Amino acid sequence: MKHYKVVTAVHAGGERMSMVIDLQTARPDEHALTFLINNYRGYAPNTILRVAESIALTLEWGASILQDHRGLVGRLLAGEIFSAAEIFSLSEFLRTSRQRSGGKSSSVVCAETHLTRLLRASEFCSFVMKEASVRIPLSDPRSKVFIERIHQLETAFSDMRPTKPVAIYSVKSLTPRQADRILELLDPENPANPFSELSTRIRNQSIFELMYYTGIRLGELLNLRVQDVEFGNPTSLYIVRRPHAADDPRPNPAQVKRKSRVLPLSHQGAAKHLKEYLDDIRPELEKRYHEPTSLMFLSIDRGTPLSARAVQKIFKELRAAVCDDGDIDGFPMSGLTPMSMRHTFSNDTEESLVSEGLTEEERRPILMQLRGDSSPRSVEPYIQRTREKRSRKHLITRQRAMFAKKTTGG
């Protein structure tokens, strides 16, 4: 981009904050910064970074495409909104533009990224107009005009959003047989274990078991510290949301994105394997790092805090080890990812709650609590899957009854 770029600053307390820089002044854009602080401060650093990139692209469109000498913000502050053609132009700009060196921006992003960018652009433009409107006395006729135009702007953006067809929920989780196959493969004593060193095998076994039995996010796994586990009957795992710490050298550190919570690790084997890693393996790894850190999972070679890329590589090697069979019980092993562990936990929990006779209203907050979700929408796919399974079962039963009635002449 020629006019704007995104940078991330690390404050003295460890908090990371992304900002949109105006390349003409070499200073943060004040409207973008105010928007990010008011609406996204406290979110995961990567989330703030993605939002800042969307705002930078929106401002770039205003500086390079919009035919208005006042620029995007100037027009909005004057209480003037965009035409349908201009919003369409912005939408197409957000669809094809990426932050690239040399100003190149020709790649088309996926539909989900495009929709997210358009939503952030809508939020930012509405925010700028609302900031201007609050400075106008309510007795001033312009106040009513501003309110009407903000509504018109939000409606215009809403009409431009691509509609997503309703999709049947696809199963992205492991069956018990599939999970057993992988757990067996990860046994450190198994000759077929794809990882060579014993220390690597013990660590990776704990990583997989924690994600499988508790459903924690990848960021939550990598944010775990030694003090976050309390061994007992059952063992407790503390998922804690913290600011970026000084002992975390990772450029894009892991974060707990949503709610802090305490999860039981009742599987005694998994708790035993985790304790073995913490007692026997981790102390030796920390010596290789030469820096004190309480982060739980460390790299084997240098003892540095484990990165998200390193965990993705673990799953990549695990996929390669099990892909000889193509799939197990209809699940393609190419779908074996850290996220599939979270899907597995969520689906298994939903099925368990259904078997206990709980209603949707009762199951939803339980799923949210265990998953650490702040929005009911996050658990809707798992509840929707239950609805689909029940609907399918009802239809099959009805069709069989109708067929039986027809063949018996009833």
Automatic annotation (TrEMBL):
Pfam families listed in its UniProt record: Phage_integrase
Keyword Hydrolase in annotation: no
Superkingdom classification of source: Bacteria
InterPro entries with a match to the protein in the record: DNA_brk_join_enz (IPR011010), Integrase-like_cat_sf (IPR013762), Integrase_catalytic (IPR002104), Tyrosine_recombinase_XerCD (IPR050090)
Region named Disordered: 372-393
Keywords: DNA integration, DNA recombination
GO molecular function, one term: DNA binding
One of the protein's GO biological processes: DNA recombination
Tyr recombinase domain location: 169-396
Gene3D superfamilies referenced in this protein's UniProt entry, alphabetically: Intergrase catalytic core
The protein's name: Integrase
